[in-house]
Amino acid sequence: MADSPSNPHDAYFRQVMSRPADAAGELQAVLPKEVATLLDWDTLILQPCSFVSQQLRSRYSDLLFRTRLNDHPAYIYLLVEHQSRPDPLMPMRMMEYLVGIWNRHVREFPKTKTLPAVIPLVVHASPDGRRWDAASELSELIDVDPAAREALGEYLPRFRFLLDDLTVHTVSALCARDLTSTTRVLLVLLKIAAGNRRLADDMLPLIEDLLAIVSAPGGVEALECVVTYILSVGETKVAELGAVFDRLGPNVKEVIMSTAERLRAEGEVRGRAEALLELLVVKFGAVPASVAEVVRGADAGQLRVWAARVLGADSLDGVFQTP
User: Fold this and answer.
1) Domain range holding 306?
2) Distances (CA, A) of 124 to 9, 56, 153, 158, 196
3) What is the total count of domains within the chain?
4) Would you say residue 67 lies in a domain?
5) Whether residues 181 and 279 fall in one domain
6) pLDDT tens-digit map of 263-277
7) pLDDT tens-place string over residues 84-139
């Protein structure tokens, strides 16, 4: 379940929603009441797994929680989509993930003769505000004419997932949900932060929640996560964010400045890594994905060492050899 360092959406989502207490509010706000009342929220436990491939982490993030539904084993599968366009094949993708969850359950309980209920929820957070306009039921993807659809009837798969389309909700509506402060800030920022040039003004409704985050145990670390996200995806200058963060106490400015400096340093390292990969491709041809992953995970010092070896090396092994 390692975070993708190049994807701030994934990192922020996981940092908040991996905590059952923070996830429970969003789940209870979206699930049908008759379902929510049957779930045991006290036994909600995050499972150490992910069903989204690393290649798709720039588009989706997912979490799986285990609980009980009317005293029977059950799972809640939460997936957030943070690409600009809804995935037209999302019902099929979610069906694949649910089968993966059931396969995992069968491996854990090989003698089982039944499958647990899995409740699927997709949270759509388009960075450009595009509403969900794709299918949410598997049967809608089946390419048949109306007459054939009626004839097939119950033989068409009816799998449907729950959808929380953040683009259709106002900020005030999200703020009115019964959520923890960290979850409320997360959902609002997923809706408004990406590409926003006036984020300081748009964040003003979150002042009370931000104060609650700062004053809670671990508040500095939680605030760093918020600041990291908005500086990574927003386009508001650091100085302009003072309209919001100056209200949170004298130590917050230091958090903002140190976070901005860290992000600048990380950006420089990522730039060096991409430059090194370009050099490797020019000299040696296509670079294996495993090598690219190593390069992108290296620190500045190691990147300098490898870059110095490129001109004299006869192969990729010559660049990465251990002295």
Assistant:
1) 271-320
2) 12, 15, 30, 21, 18
3) 2
4) yes
5) no
6) 888 888 889 999 999
7) 789 999 999 999 999 999 999 999 999 999 999 999 999 998 888 889 999 999 99
